[in-house]
Amino acid sequence: MIQKIIVAVSTVFFICGNVIFSQTMDRNPGGIISGRVLDADLGRPVEYANVVLFALPDSMQLTGTVTDHDGNFLLTGIRPGRYYLEVSFMGLQTRIINNIIISPTAMEVNLDDILLETTVIALEGTEVTAERPALTYEIDKKVINVSKQTTATSGTAVDVLENVPSVDVDIEGNVSLRGSSNFTVLIDGRPTVLEPSEALQQIPAGSIESIEIITNPSAKYDPDGIAGIINVIMKKKSLVGFSGITNLNLGLNEKYGGDVLTSHRTGSITTYMGVDYRHWYFPGTRETENMTFLNDTSSFSSSTGDLWRTWNPYGVRAGMDIDLGASDNVSLGARYGKRSMEHRSRVDYDEWSEPGDGHTLYLSESDQEHQHRFLSVTADFQHYFSPKKHRVTLQTYFHDRSGSESTLTQLFDSTGAITSGQQSTETSPGRSLRVNLDYTRPFREDDKLEAGYAGRFDRSEDTNELYVYDTLSGVFEFASLYSHTTDYARDIHALYAMYAGKWYERMGYQVGLRGEYVDRITRLDDESQEFLIDRWDYFPTVHLSYELTDGKQFMASYSRRIQRPREWWLEPFLTWTDAYNVRQGNPDLKPEYKNSIEFGFSTLLGKSLVSTEAYYRITDNKVERIRSVYDDNVILHSVDNVGTDYALGVELMLDMKMIDWWNVNCMTNFYHYRIQSDLDNDTEEDFNWSVRVNNEFKLTSSTKLQVNGRYRSPSVSSQGTRQGYFMTDAALKQEFFKKRFSITLQVRDILRTGSREFRSEGADFYSYMYMTRESPIFMLNLSYNFNNYKPDRRRDEGEQEFEGSEDM
């Protein structure tokens, strides 16, 4: 093993060294023009802005490029003379920098920061501010502009994701990324210990600036999550003085909430604080049919009843950014949150057996309560060398959580007497510490080397207890056989290195390698058992891009990723979740490994953006939840490595302006899915597809109507089939007082077509479920943006030096 590590590390450094040497030797003579392009409103770098150089006085186009991830650009090989520069990006004003002079005594010109304003269009005597695109593509991710998702204004990050490519959301709020629920959620680039869908349901849409979809992440990111990463970027106002935004959400049937974000910036210190609260209530219905075959007896049950779900989260976050000088920056942040959820049901059951003596009718009442609390603290330090791209960053992240869950199930006969019952409880405190040390070193103008260390240290304890109703004593008795305590300890140490650069000005590349060592102990306290893992894993990544003229771009990437088993997946004992379902983990479960290849192309056709991505994904040691018969009408839920699955698909996206007041965004995903199951040596396959159409109508300069529709086709797993569904949402937004105040009326699932239908079957069981929830849902959002100061926009250095600069 040590020899393999030495060979791998030596190979990486040999390759990097040769690349650096060859790039250094290939210097391009001539003048240099450099700078950085920023969004004037957001203060953020603009990636893939077009930068074109023209000669004076004949305006002949000489050369051009696009900005990198940090908004930087570089033009080389320029002969002495006079020039002007044109900088443009869709949705932002084009900037012209005039009278740029390259001379034998001044061969380098640095234009520093070039700020692009939001476009203002003259239309019949009025001024209309152009809208930012709802979606932009970068070399390794898609970026969703949340402000464009009007139908999700009163919701959460989950509601925003319903209308973006690559992501699917069912009626229960469960999120999948390209058909997989195994992905990683980051908040401002930092992990969360919550389950992915739970973390996204916790974040109010009004607090989100943008969401990044990264399906093939680079080696710099943790490799966890087979499908990729969803990174939620939170709002943090950076205007000079005091500013903020507040949202109030009101709906029918016990739905209300709100959030407030304030910030203060003065000199070198920026502080912010946010508070959010929500109370959501969702009634629904459920129908089930179950059959089990055990020995010579066939058992049947059918049920129909009502469900009630109440969700009540709140959170507080605060942070501070401090510039310690021109070269050093410190960021501190903290977030505290708590949420409670209650799932209640009242269901009528009909049970019978063959052979048997007739039907048994009874009522089942269930009450499930969840309580979760968490505290996250972050501290970051960044030091810049000269030049600015040369930097070192230290990030620390601490997370403490506690959770409890209680489920009470009681069965009543026709007289109202309790015939059986059980109560299960679970507590799960945990702590996590993460440390990242990253170093970035530029070489020449377009190349850079990134390397770093990441450490993850996780500790948690799960205690499960079961109490069974005694019909003689009328009390719930402790069942020690099904009560257990499990301790988890996991340490991960990672090293990574990446090299990025350009070939022949238009082709960009990024190659990386990450190695991770895992030391994990799972200990059953009551049985004195331990399950150990001591393993190295390696994760290579490659990203390529090729820039054509007129906004056309090719992209390609490869990554290897991992999905490690969740804690309860490893518990070898039985845990009753209710009277009809029992679960059992698998301590021998292997992690999933994914190899993924993607190819992408995007182009501008007039004012329309067309993008397509093709992808091929292979997942080894595929993990699925497996159902089998535990007892008559009782299903055992476990997890196992079922085999290997394959997904081959294409995503298409078209963003086009039909007419001046109507914009259409259409997204489709088609893929063929195949799973080779080791459970029954069988192969399941099907063709899956989904489509979303988002329409935005500008009725007036301050009034917008958005109508969205989406469809998801049926899909298969190793043991079951999920049916397709269709949903339609709409929202009407009216702005007042120069866009400081807005009112938005939202209607979700207008046609009442949202439902969930699932079938699962094996050699000894059959299960069917059909579920609906309240629809349509009406919400009213009131939003107010308060700001007494304008952004602290520094004038472009180029504008100060060259008096001929002007906006066009």
How is the secondary structure organized here?
Blueprint: H1 2-25, E1 31-39, E2 50-55, E3 61-66, E4 72-78, E5 81-89, E6 92-102, E7 108-116, E8 120-123, E9 126-129, E10 135-138, E11 141-145, H2 157-161, E12 167-169, E13 175-177, E14 184-187, E15 190-191, H3 196-202, E16 208-214, E17 229-234, E18 241-251, E19 255-266, E20 269-294, E21 297-323, E22 328-354, E23 360-384, E24 391-412, E25 418-427, E26 430-443, E27 447-470, E28 475-478, E29 484-503, E30 507-524, E31 529-547, E32 553-563, E33 574-578, E34 581-584, E35 592-605, E36 608-631, E37 634-659, E38 662-677, E39 682-700, E40 703-712, E41 715-716, E42 720-722, E43 725-736, E44 741-748, E45 755-762, E46 765-773, E47 777-787, H4 797-801, E48 806-807
Parallel strand pairs: 1-7, 14-17, 34-37
Antiparallel strand pairs: 1-4, 2-3, 2-5, 5-6, 6-48, 8-9, 10-11, 11-16, 12-13, 14-15, 16-17, 18-19, 18-47, 19-20, 20-21, 20-46, 21-22, 22-23, 23-24, 24-25, 24-26, 25-27, 26-27, 27-28, 27-29, 29-30, 30-31, 31-32, 32-35, 33-34, 35-36, 36-37, 37-38, 38-39, 39-40, 40-43, 41-42, 42-45, 43-44, 44-47, ...
Low-pLDDT regions: 1-28, 120-130, 788-808
Q: What does the largest sheet look like?
A: 30 strands, mixed
Q: Which value, in Å, is the CA radius of gyration?
A: 29 Å
> Average pLDDT value?
83
Helical fraction? under 10%
Instruction: Please work out how many helical segments DSSP would assign.
Output: 4
Outline type: globular
Percent of residues in β-strands: over 45%
Distance between the termini: 62 Å
Seen as an oligomer or otherwise, the chain set is single chain
Number of DSSP strand runs: 48
- Structural class by helix and strand composition: mainly beta
